[in-house]
Every structure is written in structure tokens, then in C-alpha cells.
């Protein structure tokens, strides 16, 4: 039970930023720290990533996302951070009060300081206004990797990958690793978003056709995805038979709750408005990690968590 109690700090979100901040607060002598996480397991978005690209700077070894998440959970446990999973925060109220819901209870709980580390998400099909039927097999990279690595399911065999950001290559490599045959990578611009001079060639090495200057304008299929229609800058349309569509990147801050709260929002990035210390417009709230755009790596968010933990501890001691 968490309602009715009062905490020094409540951290919303248990990704690298949230758990790292919790440990930093504990190290600085702040005792009453609670991390709440809506998922059943703590660790954040990195939990869904099966590839080995995490931890080099902070733990001096290359870990898969799942092992990295385990490592930060273990560290939080070592410092006796209280982590409550399956708790979804539903409201940010003035002066450090938050609304929440969990399978056992719902209500409000207060803290002297609240740290928002809810991360970001990729733009979905509806946000990208792609028309057509609504078959199964349309997903973001996070959903694609979570089905594979957490649920042991292969959601498709011949996906079209939309986008060419760093995360798009993560989707491509996951697909290749599981012996899928990506039909195409589709990019709206005239060159790749991520390291074009290198990755234009790498995509060819993966034997995946690259469609630049093109966007997905339709998806067809009754039950499952059967094809996508792409349109180039001249308006010419091509139908690509496939059984899945992975929308990658175009990240937006996971800040819907902030938008509906009293906290100010940065209209350019849709992240919470913060000062140089990460403090929000209500001084009992702070934010860090990927909820503050732009996209950062897991390691960078972990380091930001450490830093803001020290700042909040100093603030509380003052
Ligand atoms: C598909 C994908 C692939 C990636 N691959 C890499 C990679 O290879 N290498 C790398 O360094 N980085 C990678 N990243 C980036 C990395 O995942 C992030 O940098 C890092 O996880 C951000 O940490 P965070 O703590 O800010 O947020 P997150 O890890 O996103 O954690 C936010 C947490 O907040 C929780 N939450 C959200 N809203 C609520 C709420 N209302 N109530 C309670 N809990 C809530 C979420 O469930 C989540 O667990 C990838 C990201 C994505 C999406």
C-alpha cells in the first residue's frame, strides 16, 4: 500500500534515469524514496532491447538491454530503493501530490519532491496519419522488440521498416537476427537520418531495398498486413507485399500527463518545461531522462539520473 503515506521523493518511471536517480538519492542520505512503475517489471524501455549495446561507460561492459535492466534493478535493491510495479500515475497535482491506480488500490500520494522519468515513445501509425485497413502486424520498434524478447513471439516474417533513425537499424538488426526477410526500409527524406554516408551502404549489406524520398500512404490486409503502398516525391505509388509494418523513431516525449496538469510544457519539444537543474514550473517537480527531448541513449539517461538525484538531495537538505 502506498496511499496515505508521505515520501521524501517519488520517482515516476523505473528506466535507467529513474532507478539511477533513486540510487543517487539514497547515496546522498535521502531515506524515503519510492519508484513507481506501470509495467509488471522495473527497468524501463531498455528491457525490450535484446541487442548488446548498453552499459559500456557506466558498468564497463557491453550488456543486452535485458541484462542492463537487471543490473540497474539489482543496484536499486542493494541501496534498498522501494520499487512498486503495476502502479500507473494518472495525475500530477500541485505541491508534489500525484494520483495513481494499481490492481490493489487507487488514490493520491504525496512527496516533498516528485521526479518525472517517463521516457519517450515512437510515433504510432495513427500519429503519422497512415490510411487504409486496420489489420494485425502494424507496430512500433518498441512493440516489435518487446514481442520478440519479452513474449517470445515472432510478430512477422517480411516486415517493411519505416524510418532510418538509429532505432530503425535496431529494428533491422533484430529482424535479421531472427531470420526475417525485411522487404524494404522506407525513408521520407532524400538520405538516411542516421549517419547517411555509412548506413546507406549498410542497408544494402543487409540485402534490404532502400526507398528514399518515399512515405507509406496506405496499409492493406483483412486479418494480417498484406501490403503497404508507398508514394515517392513525384506522386508515383508502389505496392510492397509484406506481412508487417514497423514504424520506427519520430520520438515524442511521454508527457501526456504533464500536458493535462498544472505544469508548464515546452511547446517545441512537448517535454515538461525545466530550468538548468531539471526543475519544473512547480518547484516540487523535477524531470530528467528521455522525457526531456531529444532522444538520448540509455547510458546518458542513467548519468542524468545520477546528476538529478544529487540536485534533489541538495534541494531537500536546504
Ligand atoms: C525501440 C528502442 C530501442 C532502443 N535502443 C537503444 C540502444 O540500443 N542503446 C541505447 O543506449 N538506447 C536505446 N534506446 C533508448 C533507451 O531505451 C532510452 O534512452 C532509455 O530507456 C531512457 O531511459 P528513461 O529512464 O528516460 O526512460 P524509459 O527507459 O523509457 O523508462 C520510462 C518508464 O516510465 C514508465 N512510465 C511511463 N508512464 C508512466 C506512468 N504514467 N506511471 C508509471 N510509470 C510510467 C514506463 O513504463 C517506463 O518503464 C532505445 C529506445 C527504444 C524505444
Q: What characteristics describe this protein?
A:
elongated, FAD/NAD(P)-binding domain, 5-stranded parallel beta sheet, 318 residues, 8 helices, 7-stranded mixed beta sheet, 27% strand, binds flavin-adenine dinucleotide
Tell me about this structure:
The chain is α/β, with parallel strands linked by helices and 318 residues long. The chain folds into two domains: 182 residues, FAD/NAD(P)-binding domain, CATH 3.50.50.60; 126 residues, FAD/NAD(P)-binding domain (3-Layer(bba) Sandwich), CATH 3.50.50.60. It has eight helices and 20 strands. Helix 6 links the parallel strand 13 and strand 14. The mean pLDDT is 94.
CATH class of the largest domain: Alpha Beta
User: Ends: how far apart?
Assistant: 30 Å
Q: If you consult CATH, what is the topology of the largest domain?
A: FAD/NAD(P)-binding domain
Class of secondary structure makeup? alpha/beta
What would a concise description of this structure say?
The chain is of the alpha/beta class and 318 residues long.
SSE layout and pairings?
Blueprint: E1 6-12, H1 16-27, E2 33-36, E3 52-54, H2 56-59, E4 63-64, H3 65-78, E5 82-84, E6 88-93, E7 97-101, E8 106-116, E9 120-122, E10 131-132, E11 138-140, H4 141-149, E12 159-162, H5 166-177, E13 184-186, H6 196-205, E14 210-211, E15 214-220, E16 227-232, E17 237-241, E18 244-247, E19 251-253, H7 256-259, E20 285-287, H8 298-317
Parallel strand pairs: 1-2, 1-8, 2-5, 8-20, 10-15, 11-18, 12-13, 12-18, 13-14
Antiparallel strand pairs: 3-4, 6-7, 7-8, 9-19, 15-16, 16-17
The structure holds flavin-adenine dinucleotide.
Residues 12-18, 36-39, 44-46, 49, 51, 53-54, 88-89, 117-119, 141-142, 145, 167, 170, 254, 257, 289-290, 296-299, 301 line the site of flavin-adenine dinucleotide (FAD).
